[in-house]
Amino acid sequence: MVGSILGNRVRRVEDPELIDGRSTYVDDLRIPGTAHAVFVRSPLPHATITNLDTSNAEQAPGVLAVHTADTLGREFVPSFAQIHEAVGHGSLADGVVRYVGDPVALVVAETRAQAVDAAELVDVDYDLLDVVVDMEDALAPGSPQQFPVVGSNIAQSVRAVHPPDAGDVLADAEIVVRARIENQRIATAPLEGNAILVDPRPGADDPEVLLTAYIATQHPHMARDMLARFTGLPKEQFRVVAPHVGGAFGGKAGIGYHHGAIVAAARSLGRPVAWTETRSEAFLSMHGRAAVQYAELGLTRDGRITGLRARNIGDCGAYAGFGGTLVIGPGHIMAQGPYEIPKIDYSAIAAMTNTAPNGAFRGAGRPEAAAMLERLMDLAAHELGLAPEELRRRNLIPKDAFPYSTRTGLTYDNGDYEATLQEALRIVGIDALRADQARRIEAGEGRLLGIGVSTYVEITGFGGTELGDVRIEPDGSATVMSGTSAHGQGHATSFAMIVADRLGIPVEKIRYVQSDTRLVRTGGGTGGSRSLQLGGSAVAAAASAVRDQARELAATLLEAAPEDIELTDEGFTVSGVPGAVVGWPSLAREAEDRGAALHAELDVPQDGATFPFGAHVSVVEVDTETGLVTPLRHVAVDDCGRVLNPVIVEGQQHGGIAQGISQALWEQFLYSEDGQPLTSTFADYQMPTTADTISYETANTETPTHLNELGAKGIGESGTIGSTPAVQSAVVDALKHLGVRHVDIPCTPERVWRAVQDARAGTLPDPWREPPAAFEDIEVQRGKADGGVEV
Prior knowledge:
Largest sheet: 7 strands, mixed
Distance between the termini: 51 Å
Helix content: 25-40%
């Protein structure tokens, strides 16, 4: 029999071409005759366009076209990052700009240098309008409105009480802890910004394809469908290809209005047009997080949670960016987290502001939900005089309660939450750390130790179907396709391992094809940690179907019953008959001679989401004289179901932890009160370097899910969900003996130093204040929230 490769440490097969210069990104592509586009962007956050003169730019050397909304059209560009067309964006701003960076014109020229020079000649006059930057200020009566036709800056809202007859969910509490919690706006900052190359000419190899677009996107098929909707052309006439993509994690979901502008410009010109976002543009276009949470947790004196009340605000930015609605969708349905919470009263508002449209970022609402709960748990632990891990133990959903129905209507598939917590505490050596912490305090040292604990559960996959396609080639190699689309996750390695496991074909003889809508029939792309559980399971099913086809054919060739055919490392053999063997090349040629192929193409469903979980422990050193926080250790024990390749799982853990720690300590995208970006370059935006990061200690428990044949759950976002609250808790823990109860993230030296000074002066601010009055107008709603959850 063929030995299984799954569960082994297999080096990534896609890495050599990524590191030796053989990779191809959109900006590397060269099509003869390609013109280059540059956007003219608003320098103001909110203004009417009173005059837009393109005449000088049109006369500049090499210029082929200068477009405005008048020439490019006002059709709404369907975008993953916008809620609805009523407040949407056309290809270019039409009459009003709503954030710094809003595109008002598009210059197309023979070369990029010529387009850049001509863009400087576009003359735009503005009349400044009132500006609102802060999401809470946007909810105040009389605040400047993004879209007066809407009547407010509220893009969406929800209020739900679980169960519906719960009444006051804090009425049974013996103690209540509460805090206003900030989850700051951050820049997605991928290695590669947005990029698109559009060829509007019919394809030579497929005349039915009238337009080909090469896009740095996570969702090629979604991008194709959105472009078809934008242009009104059948989607069969579009081909979208995502070559190598330099990072995304939500920032390149589907398409945006920039992509629509380039498509429209290329169709108008009748020749290829390319646009690659500069780093400065990327800083103005891809943001995530940005929420304020007013949260209250009720408990008994013995540490049992009685109820949760949350009133959260998400910052949409301009044009009702999708990211602001995450407090309404994932933030709502994941409000219970890993704990037994009998009653929940949840309200949320997505607010529009004069800032860049906010989008998804690694975890997309789940990190924010976990950060809120973990902050409350630490406040409660201090109030009750319990160790943070002990309070969590008393409230974690027990392993014998699964499948578990949450108050918000989800069904957690399975889990052993306490096991991950216990393992993380064991690895970090919690008792020795606490002893060192006490010693430093007793000695009056200025460098104090902080230990932060977090436990989490997240939702991944979200159900649905995905394509799996496996074909045996005449030489005995295999070609594999799936509708997911990698941007660094290691799909080629994982799917090759699955096929090798099912068919016994070496990994090096398996080719993975992805991210081309002409070659790959359908696909859901990559997001929500769906790729292995949906795409991998589909590939596994297709490989199994091919194995069954091959067994039947081998039985015919070997003159044996199919049930007597075995697959070995040498090929298919007859059980108990030495020397009778037929290999994959012979089977493939025989199938071809018979006018068939060893090939399976399946759309494989998954009935519902999966729920990975884990526990993180952060250890930091805080300098009370300067406020500097130095990470010392970070232990993560994550459970993503069955682990197929520890190398890839560890890579996802490390990357997520780095991003989560960075949000906790360094990163923040800031605007001035008048709407000007303050941190729009790497000189100002505090992205960590290798000098700031540390080596992480990662481990895994394995609780396979029953929802797919691989038993796999997601791992791509776990690191960001568990790490941020653990680091924040560690910072506060280092200062708790001074009376500090809360420090908002990022825990910068200035914020930490200020907390120390306020504590010594006895002027620490109350972490709570009353939420905006706008919440009082939200009625309890019935119907379905995101994810199909009854509210």
